Amino acid sequence: MSGTNSNLPTPRILAVANQKGGVGKTTTAINLGTAMAAIGQCVLIIDMDPQGNASTGLGIDHDDRKISTFDVLMDPNIVTQSLLATAVPGLLLMPSTLDLLGVENELANTPDRSFRLKQAIELIKNIQINNGHETKPFDYIIIDCPPSFNLLTINAMAAAQSVLVPVQAEFFALEGLSQLTNSIEEFRKLLNPTLDIMGIVLTMVDDRTKLSKTVAAEVSSVFGDKLYNAVIPRNVKVSEAPSFGQPVLLYDLKAPGSQAYIELAREILQNER
Ligand SMILES: Nc1ncnc2c1ncn2[C@@H]1O[C@H](COP(=O)(O)OP(=O)(O)OP(=O)(O)O)[C@@H](O)[C@H]1O
Ligand SMILES: [Mg+2]
Asked: Atom 25, ligand 1: which residue's CA is nearest?
């Protein structure tokens, strides 16, 4: 059952982005990727953040990050060698290291600097991935962006088809979102005319607060059905899992956070069919 998403290009390439720090981008990239792999998708997570949180959260030691996103941006031709298996069948990772901090300098005089990731992804579009049940190309490529709009995010935005936006349920959420939509508009003009917002997911939602409900109502009044029904609750298991180098779905499948990411994965797949 390869190419499950009938009319859409395979792989689907998503940038998980929000210029605001600490809103759950990396947590969403790791756990959405894991949930998708658990329901049969072949998935690649690209760690585009020098912090390397997605790599650490997936249990990849620094010593094993031999060829990193940095190296791939320097030379897209080595992309295949950068891909690492994770503990989740069907989920691969392109790891990052602090070297990524140097990309802006290294590529300063390179005319195609914004399109290095796009070139690399072109080269792995058709490679065959075995998830234990079948062998097929990647269904999803999920790019974990840093919390700023620099050359790294620009590369992600040039390569992606769509942006997935995690939004923390808090008072100024809408303000941050309007900055983000302005930036996406710019990226569309400059780099990628068909880039769109795939959806918005509320993270760290505390059901007991009226605030969460107000934020959800406000976001949906502006973004309508782009707001996913699935919401990610604030859940201590979600925040503990990365220190064990595990997605929360492996750490505690029954945790509310795990179940929420499975719901989100199902909703995204459903919407795309
Ligand atoms: N649903 C959740 N419940 C509890 N804690 C969470 C949840 N989601 C994320 N966190 C915690 O919040 C912090 C920020 O999350 P995360 O690293 O995913 O955000 P980020 O947007 O990627 O941050 P940055 O902008 O620094 O890259 C982390 O400590 C993470 O463990
Ligand atoms: Mg992050």
From this structure: 21
Counting ligands in written order, which one lies closest to the CA of residue 166? 1
Per residue in 24-54, pLDDT (tens digit) is 999 999 999 999 999 999 999 999 999 999 9
Whether 129 is in a domain gets the answer yes
Residue 49: give the domain boundaries: 12-272
CATH code of residue 217? 3.40.50.300
Closest C-alpha to ligand 1, atom 6: 239
Give the other-Cβ count within 10 Å of 208's Cβ: 8
User: Which residues have C-beta atoms less than 6 Å from ligand 1?
Assistant: 21-27, 49, 53, 147, 203-204, 232, 234-235, 238-239, 242, 257
Q: Tens of pLDDT along 146-198?
A: 998 899 999 999 999 999 999 998 877 888 899 999 999 999 999 999 999 99
Q: How far apart are CA 66 and CA 68, in angstroms?
A: 6
